[in-house]
């Protein structure tokens, strides 16, 4: 059996940044560090951080006074920020900068007195955070073309749309067409809000899926990014399995398979891919081969407050050493 690896795959810049923020906070301030929601949607990442002293909570009411709290990469509603400020909590924001870009667009449209349509999936933390940037009733959530058909904004002439970053261009294209047909004056962002990492990983799967007999997507079922990759593989008529790690592999999947494709969602660490490769090789697979793909060079900087806190600690350490 031959293994072909999608390229790019796995961690994106936003996920790397979010994990680094929790890592750095634990190093600087020690445990416990509180994190609102899973910092990224991956059980293995969350379990590792939890073992080191991160405490994951659903709401700020679970966070003690004077504690340090981190907002997840998916973003939070304005009300959560206000709650944290009112309580005097020390906050470090791990919201992905691409999600923050969408929030800025929301604020711009709001200042212009416009209602908004968010193309996204109900219940996803990013959707919760984006809809929470404006007063209730100012934003409508749609997921499908059918949702657009029942949409009844108060003023169709002052309407704009935005998108959840982890949806595919294919998913949003039909909905955007439906919105423009029903509301010809609707405005949209100057540049598509689809995350570069989401698009790159989906493009890689589009290229890989037709070349293999089976596609494995490494990621969590609650990860929108990973789930979309698995759905894409299925739409391309390639038997596709979304798995969290090697323990979920079944040998009978590969009984008549000569080529195996592997991709990974933006919140899945490469260590999980390596574990799957090792298991497949134990069943007779060859050394994996990387496929050609886009080279990602995006790096997001850490929050300034966290960088400053680290600098102060280093200066204090140097001063202490000089005193000795």
TrEMBL record:
<dbReference type="InterPro" id="IPR003451">
    <property type="entry name" value="LytB/IspH"/>
</dbReference>
<feature type="binding site">
    <location>
        <position position="41"/>
    </location>
    <ligand>
        <name>isopentenyl diphosphate</name>
    </ligand>
</feature>
<dbReference type="Pfam" id="PF02401">
    <property type="entry name" value="LYTB"/>
</dbReference>
<dbReference type="GO" id="GO:0019288">
    <property type="term" value="P:isopentenyl diphosphate biosynthetic process, methylerythritol 4-phosphate pathway"/>
</dbReference>
<comment type="similarity">
    <text>Belongs to the IspH family.</text>
</comment>
<feature type="binding site">
    <location>
        <position position="225"/>
    </location>
    <ligand>
        <name>dimethylallyl diphosphate</name>
    </ligand>
</feature>
<dbReference type="GO" id="GO:0046872">
    <property type="term" value="F:metal ion binding"/>
</dbReference>
<feature type="binding site">
    <location>
        <position position="124"/>
    </location>
    <ligand>
        <name>(2E)-4-hydroxy-3-methylbut-2-enyl diphosphate</name>
    </ligand>
</feature>
<dbReference type="GO" id="GO:0016114">
    <property type="term" value="P:terpenoid biosynthetic process"/>
</dbReference>
<feature type="binding site">
    <location>
        <position position="74"/>
    </location>
    <ligand>
        <name>isopentenyl diphosphate</name>
    </ligand>
</feature>
<feature type="binding site">
    <location>
        <position position="224"/>
    </location>
    <ligand>
        <name>isopentenyl diphosphate</name>
    </ligand>
</feature>
<feature type="binding site">
    <location>
        <position position="41"/>
    </location>
    <ligand>
        <name>dimethylallyl diphosphate</name>
    </ligand>
</feature>
<feature type="active site" description="Proton donor">
    <location>
        <position position="126"/>
    </location>
</feature>
<keyword id="KW-0479">Metal-binding</keyword>
<feature type="binding site">
    <location>
        <position position="124"/>
    </location>
    <ligand>
        <name>isopentenyl diphosphate</name>
    </ligand>
</feature>
<feature type="binding site">
    <location>
        <position position="267"/>
    </location>
    <ligand>
        <name>isopentenyl diphosphate</name>
    </ligand>
</feature>
<keyword id="KW-0408">Iron</keyword>
<feature type="binding site">
    <location>
        <position position="224"/>
    </location>
    <ligand>
        <name>dimethylallyl diphosphate</name>
    </ligand>
</feature>
<feature type="binding site">
    <location>
        <position position="96"/>
    </location>
    <ligand>
        <name>[4Fe-4S] cluster</name>
    </ligand>
</feature>
<dbReference type="GO" id="GO:0051745">
    <property type="term" value="F:4-hydroxy-3-methylbut-2-enyl diphosphate reductase activity"/>
</dbReference>
<feature type="binding site">
    <location>
        <position position="195"/>
    </location>
    <ligand>
        <name>[4Fe-4S] cluster</name>
    </ligand>
</feature>
<comment type="function">
    <text>Catalyzes the conversion of 1-hydroxy-2-methyl-2-(E)-butenyl 4-diphosphate (HMBPP) into a mixture of isopentenyl diphosphate (IPP) and dimethylallyl diphosphate (DMAPP). Acts in the terminal step of the DOXP/MEP pathway for isoprenoid precursor biosynthesis.</text>
</comment>
<feature type="binding site">
    <location>
        <position position="224"/>
    </location>
    <ligand>
        <name>(2E)-4-hydroxy-3-methylbut-2-enyl diphosphate</name>
    </ligand>
</feature>
<feature type="binding site">
    <location>
        <position position="41"/>
    </location>
    <ligand>
        <name>(2E)-4-hydroxy-3-methylbut-2-enyl diphosphate</name>
    </ligand>
</feature>
<protein>
    <recommendedName>
        <fullName>4-hydroxy-3-methylbut-2-enyl diphosphate reductase</fullName>
        <ecNumber>1.17.7.4</ecNumber>
    </recommendedName>
</protein>
<feature type="binding site">
    <location>
        <position position="165"/>
    </location>
    <ligand>
        <name>(2E)-4-hydroxy-3-methylbut-2-enyl diphosphate</name>
    </ligand>
</feature>
<keyword id="KW-0560">Oxidoreductase</keyword>
<comment type="pathway">
    <text>Isoprenoid biosynthesis; isopentenyl diphosphate biosynthesis via DXP pathway; isopentenyl diphosphate from 1-deoxy-D-xylulose 5-phosphate: step 6/6.</text>
</comment>
<dbReference type="GO" id="GO:0051539">
    <property type="term" value="F:4 iron, 4 sulfur cluster binding"/>
</dbReference>
<feature type="binding site">
    <location>
        <position position="225"/>
    </location>
    <ligand>
        <name>(2E)-4-hydroxy-3-methylbut-2-enyl diphosphate</name>
    </ligand>
</feature>
<comment type="pathway">
    <text>Isoprenoid biosynthesis; dimethylallyl diphosphate biosynthesis; dimethylallyl diphosphate from (2E)-4-hydroxy-3-methylbutenyl diphosphate: step 1/1.</text>
</comment>
<feature type="binding site">
    <location>
        <position position="74"/>
    </location>
    <ligand>
        <name>dimethylallyl diphosphate</name>
    </ligand>
</feature>
<feature type="binding site">
    <location>
        <position position="267"/>
    </location>
    <ligand>
        <name>dimethylallyl diphosphate</name>
    </ligand>
</feature>
<feature type="binding site">
    <location>
        <position position="223"/>
    </location>
    <ligand>
        <name>isopentenyl diphosphate</name>
    </ligand>
</feature>
<keyword id="KW-0411">Iron-sulfur</keyword>
<feature type="binding site">
    <location>
        <position position="124"/>
    </location>
    <ligand>
        <name>dimethylallyl diphosphate</name>
    </ligand>
</feature>
<keyword id="KW-0414">Isoprene biosynthesis</keyword>
<keyword id="KW-0004">4Fe-4S</keyword>
<feature type="binding site">
    <location>
        <position position="74"/>
    </location>
    <ligand>
        <name>(2E)-4-hydroxy-3-methylbut-2-enyl diphosphate</name>
    </ligand>
</feature>
<dbReference type="GO" id="GO:0050992">
    <property type="term" value="P:dimethylallyl diphosphate biosynthetic process"/>
</dbReference>
<feature type="binding site">
    <location>
        <position position="223"/>
    </location>
    <ligand>
        <name>(2E)-4-hydroxy-3-methylbut-2-enyl diphosphate</name>
    </ligand>
</feature>
<feature type="binding site">
    <location>
        <position position="223"/>
    </location>
    <ligand>
        <name>dimethylallyl diphosphate</name>
    </ligand>
</feature>
């Amino acid at each position: 059996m031959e293994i072909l690896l999608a390229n790019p795959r796995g961690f994106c810049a936003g996920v790397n940044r979010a994990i680094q923020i929790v890592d750095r906070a634990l190093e600087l301030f020690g445990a416990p560090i509180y994190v609102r929601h899973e910092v990224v949607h991956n059980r293995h990442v969350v379990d590792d951080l939890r073992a080191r002293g991160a405490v994951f909570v659903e709401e700020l009411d679970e966070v003690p006074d004077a504690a340090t709290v981190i907002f997840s990469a998916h973003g939070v509603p304005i009300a959560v920020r206000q709650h944290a400020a009112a309580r005097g909590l020390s906050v470090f924001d791990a919201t992905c900068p691409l999600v923050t870009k969408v929030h800025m667009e929301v604020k711009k449209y709001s200042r212009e007195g416009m209602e908004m349509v968010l193309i996204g999936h109900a219940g996803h933390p990013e959707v919760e955070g984006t809809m929470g940037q404006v007063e209730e009733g100012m934003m409508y959530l749609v997921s499908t073309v059918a949702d657009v058909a029942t949409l009844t904004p108060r003023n169709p002439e002052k309407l704009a749309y935005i998108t959840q970053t982890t949806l595919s261009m294919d998913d949003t294209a039909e909905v955007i067409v439906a919105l423009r047909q029903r509301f010809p004056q609707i405005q949209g962002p100057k540049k598509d809000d689809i995350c570069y990492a989401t698009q790159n990983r989906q493009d890689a799967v589009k290229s890989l899926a037709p070349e293999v007999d089976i596609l494995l997507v490494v990621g969590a079922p609650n990860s929108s990014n990973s789930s979309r990759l698995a759905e894409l593989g299925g739409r391309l008529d390639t038997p596709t399995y979304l798995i969290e790690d090697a323990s979920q592999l079944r040998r009978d999947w590969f009984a008549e398979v000569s080529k195996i494709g592997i991709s990974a969602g933006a919140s899945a660490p490469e260590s999980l891919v390596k574990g799957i490769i090792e298991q497949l090789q134990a069943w007779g697979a060859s050394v994996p081969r990387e496929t050609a793909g886009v080279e990602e060079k995006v790096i997001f900087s850490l929050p300034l407050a966290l960088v400053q806190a680290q600098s102060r600690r280093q200066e204090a350490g140097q001063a202490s050493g000089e005193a000795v």
